[in-house]
Amino acid sequence: MARKPFIAGNWKMNMTVASGTKLIADLKPLVKEAKCDVCLCVPAILIPAMVKAAKGSKIKIGAENLHWAASGAYTGEISAEMLKDYGVKYVIIGHSERRQYFGENNDTVNMRTLTALKNELTPIVCIGETLTERTNGETENVLTRQLEFGLHGVEDVKQIVIAYEPVWAIGTGQTATDEQAQETIKFIRKKLSKMFGVKEANRVRILYGGSMNAGNCKGLMAQPDIDGGLIGGASLKLDFAKIVNYEK
Ligand code: 13P
């Protein structure tokens, strides 16, 4: 079965109710004919207003994180149930900024991923190497560890979306070349095949993320193993619609 392309935005810590509502209102008509799945992952506090803004459109609203516990003394965290209350379907897990600034590691990524799955939320699990790791030839080892630990105990891997985001390409304007992205994502799929079987691995959607924009999306999307994008900066503007309509 062919994998349906998926273009997801990650607003990170940007936008307000007013600016987000306006952007979604402006995007709605532009993505009306989208052939791919479309989602915007937004700061938790904006979820209710953005769900309302996106109602009746192709745009699904996702979250940027979730906690593994059902409830309890975890100040500042958000539970799966809270996300589901608003009809959220997708949730980003283990973004490199969470790993870099907030102590996330493969174990917390694993707990969050399993919790998302248990609650029928689709986790967008982020993996990727730093520049030093790439330069030292450690990319494949790093990705292998992130996949083996991060996805430990996952039973139905096709319920997961993987986002390959090389850290050196995030917010830097330095996109991976089409070939670099394809080669690495092909490796990720091969690794998933070893872990879960070829048939299952072939059904997992793997996105590329890192300075993807309206100019470079077409080339990246033409690669056989790249099924979509996780878009940061360009998801804060109307360019996001151009990426969604990358085929046009
Ligand atoms: P940029 O598109 O701004 O490089 O960010 C990518 C990203 O981190 C998406 O999660």
Structural commentary:
This protein has about 250 residues and is α/β, with parallel strands linked by helices. It is about 40% helix and about 15% strand. It has an eight-stranded parallel beta sheet. Helix 1 packs parallel to helix 2. The longest helix is centred in the C-terminal third of the chain and has 19 residues. It is globular, with a radius of gyration of 17 Å. About 45% of the residues are buried. The structure holds 1,3-dihydroxyacetonephosphate.
Give short descriptive properties of this protein.
binds 1,3-dihydroxyacetonephosphate; single chain; alpha/beta; eight-stranded parallel beta sheet; 40% helix; 248 residues
Write a short abstract of this structure.
The chain has helices spanning 17-30, 47-54, 80-85, 96-101, 106-118, 131-135, 139-150, 178-196, 198-201, 217-221, 239-244, and strands at 6-10, 37-42, 59-63, 90-93, 122-127, 161-164, 205-209, 228-231. It is α/β, with parallel strands linked by helices and 248 residues long.
Helix- and strand-based class?
alpha/beta
What is the CA-CA span between the terminal residues?
Answer: 23 Å
- Count of helices? 11
Uncertain spans: none
Helix content: 25-40%
What is the quaternary state of this protein? single chain
Task: Give the overall shape, derived from the CA principal axes.
Answer: globular
Mean pLDDT: 97
- Kindly provide the radius of gyration, computed on alpha-carbon positions and rounded to a whole number of angstroms: 17 Å
Count all strands and give the number.
Answer: 8
Order of helices and strands: EHEHEHEHHEHHEHHEHEH
Strand order of the largest sheet: 3-2-1-8-7-6-5-4
Main β-sheet description: 8 strands, parallel
Ligands bound to this protein structure:
1,3-dihydroxyacetonephosphate
Tell me the strand percentage band. 15-25%
